[in-house]
């Protein structure tokens, strides 16, 4: 996965959902933290879509405990031939335990998405810019998911997305929550490289997500 252009990822906790995702998605985001036996699921994967592996830690909105097992599982996932990208939290890199994942991904030629989530607010532009700058020191893509409370929040995120893209940086941005919902359709217009969507609305992995078919339709219509 090179993220040269927009990638729509179907967020799945069960890789069996790939069949239903195929029609609209470019990739699967496998939420390992939400799966019962993620490494066995990877071994049994015979889908068509490439996999972005995420093992989201609990303090960043996921369900994985913050222990060695989480990071070890991510490292093992990288060895799987269909895993073409891996998500590592910037905070995990800063803490040190994410560094080995990035290094192994580099050795395997697996793309690295370094992510930051803010479940409270949309920070000031300078702060968002700083976070993406740090993420891009380690990742092929810097991903920033913030929480919007107003249209002004979304505008700030979109303006930043546009500026980063114009400067040749690969970023993925989205505003979580109701007020930010439309950002998921509009941010790709300004250069955001990744969108995330569940196949069915009930399986949303973040607040404000559209279902996959809807997001594909919106992104296509705005292209
Ligand atoms: O980091 C992200 C982005 C996301 O939080 C979203 O807002 O769509 C959804 C997650 O599944 C994914 O890992």
From TrEMBL:
Which controlled-vocabulary keywords does the entry list?
A: Amino-acid biosynthesis, Aromatic amino acid biosynthesis, Lyase, Schiff base
GO biological process terms, alphabetically, are: 3,4-dihydroxybenzoate biosynthetic process; amino acid biosynthetic process; aromatic amino acid family biosynthetic process; chorismate biosynthetic process
- Which pathway does this polypeptide act in? Metabolic intermediate biosynthesis; chorismate biosynthesis; chorismate from D-erythrose 4-phosphate and phosphoenolpyruvate: step 3/7
Any single GO molecular-function term of the entry would be: 3-dehydroquinate dehydratase activity
Q: Does the keyword Amino-acid biosynthesis apply?
A: yes
**Highest taxon of source:** Archaea
Q: What is its EC number?
A: 4.2.1.10
- Annotated SUPFAM superfamilies: Aldolase
Active site per UniProt: 117 (proton donor/acceptor), 143 (schiff-base intermediate with substrate)
Per UniProt, 3-dehydroquinate binds at 29-31, 56, 184, 205, 209
Decide whether keyword Glycoprotein is in the record.
no
Stated name of the protein? 3-dehydroquinate dehydratase
Q: Which organism is it from?
A: Halomarina halobia
Encoding gene (name): aroD
